[in-house]
Amino acid sequence: MTTALFDAAPAADPALSPRIDAAIDRALAEKRIVGTVVLAAQDGRLVYRRAAGLADREAGRPVREDSVFLYASLTKPIVTAAALRLVEEGRIARADPVTKFLPDFRPKLADGTEPVITIHHLLTHTAGLIYGFAEPADGPYHRAGVSDGLDAPGRSFAENLRRIASAPLAVAPGSAWAYSLALDVLGAALEQAAGESLAELVRSRVTGPLGLQDTGFFPPDRSRLASAYADAVPEPLRMGDSYVIPAPQPFAGLSFAPDRIFDPASYPSGGAGMAGTAGDFLVFLEALRQGGAPILRPETVQAMATGQIPGLAMPESPGTTFGYGFALVTDPAAAGVPMTAGTWRWGGVYGHSWFVDPARRLSVVGLTNTAFEGMNGRFVADLRAAIYVGLE
Question: Could you tell me the residue range of the domain that residue 132 belongs to?
Fold first, then answer.
């Protein structure tokens, strides 16, 4: 299944294409992004599609609609869907302790006590884990050499889990929301529960049934992979084999190794390890928006789109809560977005953003090869504004 299976139709607002085109053209002209693919579907019909800019600036290779991008955190909702499929099959339960599947994974609180971490905690980023980029450079994850799933080519699941478990939990499980390596830990647990690799599990439960031939933990064609770039002036910098995007003091920077995905010894990061096309991801989102078939039951999708962290705040994300696999807009004004309350959204640190507005029956995917502009820069705001002006 690809975007070719969407019925192409004129946008409901004839000005939609020029407005989105203008947002893309401005970002390219100002050299804030190198290349992008933007797709929008409404009522299951493709109402906008465009590939623009360069997949490899140095080689002069243009972005095409079938260009493959390093997904980063677009991996999370896909792995979440695979996990919830195992829940439907009765292989795991959300209340199961993680030690049922990973008996040696026993991180402790700072006082030395060992709390119970459940599958639900991992799915909702309430397990007490964090990401290394969210702590100071001398923090416990850095002292332990934990990988955030974007670097350290060749590292195994067992080794990174050992390092994570050696660091103290930031908070007691269930007491706070913190974006984290939880989906990486979940991926390892799913492998044990299903008796197959995470790559095989995702293929059999999600990408295979949806016909997503270009999405997985191993890119189908290296020649189609978009090169990775990072924000810089006067133009984005190519990341190369490794790159660190600095963070304000005292926090550590975010480490990237774009070729990690080509090292077969690298563990399949459930939070950041997949690659794929914009079209494949749109098909995945539309399958969820339309009820989940053929991968999930409607009630499971409803759980994904329901707040799962009652009473807990998402720091720096007012007007937002978290379901399973993505954030949910609860108060658009507080969140500073034009979407409808109930909109699902997330992004990817290599330069991606996406949202599904169920009330508008609208799904939008914007992939770029430029971090962080394509994830949370002006391009994202301009793209949203261009779309919603015509929907008012």
Answer: 78-203
pLDDT tens digits for 66-94?
A: 999 999 999 999 999 999 999 999 999 99
Q: Is the pLDDT of residue 208 over 90?
A: yes
Sign, CA torsion 323/326/328/334: positive
From 67, 73, 180, 363, the catalytic residue: 73
CA distances to 66, 173, 217, 366 from 4, rounded to whole Å, are 11, 44, 23, 17
Catalytic site includes residue 73: yes
CB-side neighbour CA atoms (13 Å) of 287: 27
Total of domains in the chain: 2
230 with 336, same domain? yes
Whether 97 is covered by a domain: the verdict is yes
Count of Cβ atoms closer than 10 Å to residue 29 Cβ:
8
Proportion of the chain above pLDDT 70, given as a percent: 96
| 65-to-172, 215, 252, 298, 366 alpha-carbon distances in Å | 44, 14, 35, 30, 11
CATH number, domain containing residue 143: 3.40.710.10
Q: Please tell me the distance from the alpha carbon of residue 174 to that of residue 170, in angstroms, as a whole number.
A: 11
Tell me the pLDDT band of 247, cut-offs 50, 70 and 90: confident
pLDDT tens-digit map of 118-129: 999 999 999 999
